[in-house]
Amino acid sequence: MSTQQQAPPQAQMMQMVTGFWTSCCIYTAAKLNIADLLDSKPQKAETLAEATHSDGPSLYRVLRALASVSIFSENENGEFENTVLSQTLRSNVPGSMKAMAIAQLGDHFNAWGNLLYSIKTGNISFDKVEGMPVWEYYETHPEEGLNFMKAMTGSTNAAIVNVIPAYDFSQFKTIVDVGGGNGAFLLAVLDAAKQAKGIVFDEEYVIEETEKALQEKGAVRCSTEGGNFFESVPAGADTYIMKHILHDWSDEKSIQILNSCSKAMKPGSKLLVIESVIPQGNTPHPGKFMDINMMAMTGGKERTELEFTNLFAKAGLKLKRVINTGAPTLSIVEVTKD
């Protein structure tokens, strides 16, 4: 960063403009499983090319470029080996970024390339490029859908590490995770709330897989329920959790989801919205660019505290407090019913 700050403005801008060059090289390495292949020992590009059915000289050039930014390293024997950064591109390591790299630089890439369409029209560039909404795309492209679920697992792991220590879940007896996916986050919450029972609520096709996962883990205090959160959610729980749900949707759609929660909440119930809370002004914050991703991919948005307050009010809910965790995209927005 200090070197970049000392560079002339044109050089700094050039680095920003061509940042996607590095991203595309990362995508190539992730798709070819290079980090996995280098897990056992260093290997020459020719050997890696043979294993990945690639052109040796071309692959060498990509790996050389990545090694120049500390993603892989070339040793004195001309062999490539993993680095701390490239280790995150391995498949089955905690905090793996491989699936995220493949999703962001594969499925999502063309939507970003057509961002101007969203800016000009206010519509979703992904829908324009692919001819369908992203959720329909993942239903009809199962390989990409499975990869995206793996990418979201990384987000869930980050939430487990940062959110659960920041909030007292022991006060609740019944917890509903709205849009809870495979149930991993709710199971971790229940580990911290030994007295509680939980319900994973999601679409029917998701819940089928969730039930299998819960059975494999022997989760006796966690059940599932399928449905549409635009219409209703399970009623009468002590708290409702929504992790990275509202940012997928426009204000109009988000109000529908919040209305479902409001109707289901009993006196004293809480709603915990786990998302970015965008700061005012020029403060750097990853949510400001995640907001553009939502614009291009789903038509959703990241929100400021004031925007959350106004959104909740339209569903008869009140923002009580914002709890910052160790991750800026995982703030806990605690909400009560008026």
What do these coordinates show?
It is a single chain. This protein is α/β, with parallel strands linked by helices. The protein folds into two domains: 2-93, Arc Repressor Mutant, subunit A; 154-337, Vaccinia Virus protein VP39 (Rossmann fold). It has helices at residues 2-6, 9-17, 19-31, 34-37, 45-52, 56-67, 84-87, 98-107, 109-113, 115-121, 125-130, 134-140, 142-162, 184-192, 204-216, 251-264, 287-297, 305-313; strands at 43-44, 73-74, 79-81, 174-178, 197-202, 222-226, 239-243, 270-275, 277-278, 303-304, 317-323, 331-337. Helix 3 crosses helix 6 (56-67), helix 3 packs across helix 8 and helix 12 (134-140) packs across helix 13 (142-162). It starts with a helix and ends with a strand. The strands form three sheets. The protein has a seven-stranded mixed beta sheet, sandwiched between helices. The chain has a three-stranded antiparallel beta sheet with strand order 1-3-2. The protein has 18 helices and twelve strands.
Protein traits:
single chain; 338 residues; alpha/beta; Arc Repressor Mutant, subunit A; Rossmann fold; 2 domains; 7-stranded mixed β-sheet; 3-stranded antiparallel β-sheet; 12 strands; 49% helix
Topology:
Layout: H1 2-6, H2 9-17, H3 19-31, H4 34-37, E1 43-44, H5 45-52, H6 56-67, E2 73-74, E3 79-81, H7 84-87, H8 98-107, H9 109-113, H10 115-121, H11 125-130, H12 134-140, H13 142-162, E4 174-178, H14 184-192, E5 197-202, H15 204-216, E6 222-226, E7 239-243, H16 251-264, E8 270-275, E9 277-278, H17 287-297, E10 303-304, H18 305-313, E11 317-323, E12 331-337
Parallel strand pairs: 4-5, 4-7, 5-6, 7-8, 9-10
Antiparallel strand pairs: 1-3, 2-3, 8-12, 11-12
Helix pairs in contact: 3-6, 3-8, 5-6, 8-13, 12-13, 13-14
